[in-house]
Design goal:
Radius of gyration: 19 Å
Distance between the termini: 73 Å
Number of helices: 1
CATH architecture: Sandwich
Strand content: 35-45%
Shape: elongated
């Protein structure tokens, strides 16, 4: 029987993701994955709808991502990457190509915050 291999990942700095595991539904049926990492699920060859999300307070399904895939006889590998910002969508697709949505925005925000703090303290020292 063909296998759908799912590599379930989260951003390195996303320590809150370690408190809960992702949820996977294939054709609307929950799959017993429960933890981050690589999991293989036996499926019939042919078209399937794959959904991955992380249970959270608000939104209830954080980082939700879906993909319509066709699983060949030799199987298929997918990668899910949870978002950096919990309100963003997750990324689900070919292995090795998924990036954490929201990372650039959070990175830019952090740089702006550091620049503002440095500018504030620099202006105080010249007063």
């Amino acid at each position: 029987m063909p296998r759908l291999t799912l590599d379930l990942r989260h951003p390195t700095g996303g320590f809150l993701y370690k408190l809960t595991g992702p949820r996977v539904l294939i054709d609307g049926t929950a799959q017993p994955v429960g933890a981050w990492g690589t999991h293989a699920v036996d499926v019939a060859a042919g078209p399937h709808r794959v959904e991955v999300h992380v249970p959270y307070v608000l939104p209830r399904k954080a980082g939700r991502a879906t993909a319509e895939v066709t699983v060949p006889e030799q199987g298929l590998a997918l990668e899910y990457m949870a978002p950096t910002v919990v309100f963003a969508k997750g990324s689900l697709g070919p292995q090795g190509q998924q990036k954490s949505p929201g990372f650039k925005a959070v990175h830019a925000f952090n740089i702006a915050a550091v620049v503002l703090v440095v500018a504030y303290f620099a202006s105080r020292s010249f007063s």
